[in-house]
Amino acid sequence: MNMMFLQELFNNITQRDALLRRRHPETLTPDHQQLVKACHKLLESDGEASSIALASRALAIYQRLPAAEKSRFFGRLTADFAAEPGPIDAAYTAYQEARDNQSLQRLFEACEPRRQELFRRLNLASDGTYELVKMREDLLGLLREQPELAAIDDDFAHLFGSWFNRGFLMLKRIDWNTPASILEKIIRYEAVHEIQDWDDLRRRLDARDRRCFAFFHPAIGDEPLIFVEVALHKGLPSRIQPILSGESSHSKKGVDEPEDADTAAFFGISNCQTGLRGISFGNFLIKQVVQELSQELPQLKYFVTLSPVPGFAQWLQEQRDDEQLPESLRKSLKGLETPGWHQDQTREETLKAAIRPLAARYLVEEKNRHGLPLNPVARFHLGNGAELHRINWLGDISAKGFKQAAGLMVNYLYVLDDIERNHENYTAKGTVACSNEVRDLARRARKLAKGETTK
């Protein structure tokens, strides 16, 4: 094959395309009306080949829309691509008369917004699934200011729940031999403990006492959906800094060989795709990783997290300002305002005696309007069937750790025989499964709130 000919042909096509764009500048900066027209054409299309071409064109227009035009497009999706009242009324009347499955199916079809069929057809394009995920990410950024767009988000969530169900997810181990394109994404998407550079990434992936697993979806290629980082230990870890620095492998709880470990500690779980918010992957990921590690290292006894407590510092500030609490407790908490307080042994011990019980109260007893724990990380792990096992004082002494949780970290323990029972009790009753140690701390918090001694 004449490669020079092919190169010349490609150059000619590229130059012709550039010339067309110069002649028709609207193709460079399209508006939402062009996209709406393209979407209508896509819905009217009958042939598969033409639908793929039209879907690709519509997505290409969307990608080039300025932010304001994207917002206007979502507004048109809400108004122009909703379900039609007339067909719904007719289908409902027919169902009332017939009361059979056929008329019920027609009612279902009439009630479905046209947006959902539009999204299905857009999904025909190459990389259509990923482009729709990014489209939803744009939409999520608008919902607070434009709550009327929530119906579109419901349509996305409905479709993504099917497209990204567990049967389509592929679990892959991430290590230092993983393609660099994926490793770059791991660095970018790490949301719990920032990866500083490639050397930092290598410490987390290449050591014999580390594991990392991610879920992928065949429709979006090498874009991870979620990943979890694991450290192998002897006993339950209580501090994150030795794990992140690699010092844990040289400590009394570290292991030189994976076969010496009795604990798998999940110290970072990161969702990678904002556009898939609300689509549950984490519970499947943890349970499958537990199975994978159990097969590789059957001597493992404990599967536990070392988790942050985001939002606790803010809640603690509210307690410091609560005049109904005893003055002695509020005075103790004011020690948090002193820079470097954790390096002053007296002040550190005073704060420890007050904050650990309050943390147990926050995690076990403080609930949101749905009757579930205030803390999002607690909701995630408790909903998966884990037990709130231990509250670790000064578990994270980084600036971020102090800012979000006064330095606290938490162990959530996954006991395989208890997972289903814990999950059912949490789902049905909002019950927080916790250890006796945490339960005792919560009782001490109630005494502190009444001004009683806890000794």
Summarize the structure.
With 455 residues, the protein is of the alpha+beta class. The chain has 20 helices and seven strands.
Describe this structure in words.
There is one protein chain. Helices cover 53% and strands 10% of the residues. By secondary structure, it is α+β, with helices and mostly antiparallel strands. Helix 2 (32-44) packs antiparallel against helix 3, helix 5 packs antiparallel against helix 6 and helix 7 (114-122) packs across helix 9 (150-163). The termini are far apart.
Please state the average pLDDT score.
91
In N-to-C order, the SSE pattern is HHHHHHHHHEHHEEHEHEHHHHEHEHH
| Apparent shape | globular
Percent of residues in helical segments?
A: 40-55%
Strand order within the widest beta sheet: 1-2-3-4-5-7-6
Structural class: alpha+beta
Major pleated sheet: 7 strands, mixed
Based on the model shown, name its key terms:
about 450 residues, alpha+beta, 7-stranded mixed sheet, 20 helices, 7 strands, about 55% helix, about 10% strand
Write the layout of secondary structure elements.
Blueprint: H1 3-23, H2 32-44, H3 48-64, H4 67-80, H5 85-98, H6 101-111, H7 114-122, H8 128-140, H9 150-163, E1 170-173, H10 180-189, H11 198-206, E2 210-216, E3 226-233, H12 241-245, E4 263-271, H13 282-296, E5 302-305, H14 312-320, H15 327-333, H16 345-364, H17 376-383, E6 387-392, H18 399-405, E7 409-414, H19 419-429, H20 436-449
Parallel strand pairs: 4-5
Antiparallel strand pairs: 1-2, 2-3, 3-4, 5-7, 6-7
Helix pairs in contact: 2-3, 2-4, 5-6, 7-9, 16-20
